DNA sequence: CCTACCGATCGGTAGG
DNA sequence: CCTACCGATCGGTAGG
């Protein structure tokens, strides 16, 4: 419901109605509306950050490492289509302290990508595009998967999706 | 304010306070809160759709046409950083009738890109990636510009930005 | 452009 | 898990 209506426009009464109880009864399960948002945001943030450890344990040339990073990222989004939409857009409603921690996790994750990209550029494996432009374009492309991909649709396999994003981002559309 | 707080979480009193008048006085200028959202969404939608006419008037090979389409898209986002953020995320709060028209305009715009991409694939100029995956990734990458680009920052020129997106999307990162 | 106000709804609590 | 309720705030209107 946070994905569909947005966090601010989803009331405790909406949530309660969906579960089939009264709004007041929700407070036997959670302590506040924001706690639900926290749970969602930090669940996804944790999955992304744990990918960083996987990547750091690999010794590969940059282009293979970037492909692996892309595939791992796609899997997180595809496995959490609704939660990742909330993660991407509703985190700004976290309170000050949680937002600070959230942003720190995101920065750690993004830094891992910047490192791979810059490393590849130094070695001459990659074009010398401005890393910020490339990385932000890449994140946006990957994060946008929740907008259109439906895992149960069946027509596109999620592993194939990861490979295709890797192909597009490394080699582009031109034949 | 709709960009920063979201439409639902921005009240008429917030808006009025920003302008320095009472909430009730806003209704001498607008007829409803949603009207402001309409104005923003359809302003941007109009700019995008008018790009389609420009593209249709060009006779170029697909890869040049796609580059032109990308550059035009980037200019709309860059010239309307705040409004395009609202356009991308808050349109779901439009009422039923406006949303229907809005979606129709978006579909018309997206169809122009699909046509170029499919045409290029048939001619063998482009890789045979699934058009939906490629186009959605492209839209997400381009639309995400509002998240990080600041036109007044000065360090990245908007024309250069359009060219760089074209390079990335057509040729990828690999050297 | 204002004051004064409408009914509806908000997140959350008290008490059982 | 409920009923009953709190003060705050919502979009919007009446009337000047």
List the SSEs and their pairings.
Two copies of one chain form a homodimer.
Chain A: H1 2-5, H2 12-19, H3 33-56, H4 62-79, H5 81-89, H6 96-122, H7 131-143, H8 145-148, H9 158-171
Chain A binds a DNA duplex (16 and 16 nucleotides) through loops.
End-to-end gap of chain A? 42 Å
Shape of chain A: elongated
- Counting DSSP E segments of at least 2 residues, the number of strands of chain A comes to 0
Strand content of chain A: under 5%
Oligomer: homodimer
List the chains of the largest interface with their residue counts.
A-B, 46 and 46 residues
In which range does the helix fraction of chain A lie?
55-70%
Average pLDDT value of chain A? 97
Number of helices of chain A: 9
Low-confidence regions of chain A? none
- Backbone structural class of chain A: mainly alpha
Q: Could you tell me the radius of gyration of chain A in angstroms? A: 18 Å
Biggest pleated sheet of chain A:
none
- SSE sequence of chain A, one letter per element: HHHHHHHHH
Describe the fold and architecture.
With 175 residues, the first copy, chain A, is mostly helical. The first copy, chain A, is 69% helix and 0% strand. Chain A contains nine helices and no strands. Chain A has helices at residues 2-5, 12-19, 33-56, 62-79, 81-89, 96-122, 131-143, 145-148, 158-171. Chain A is elongated, with a radius of gyration of 18 Å. Chain A starts with a helix and ends with a helix. The mean pLDDT of chain A is 97. The interface between A and B is large, with 46 and 46 residues. Chain A binds a DNA duplex (16 and 16 nucleotides) through residues 11-13, 21-25, 27-28, 32-33.
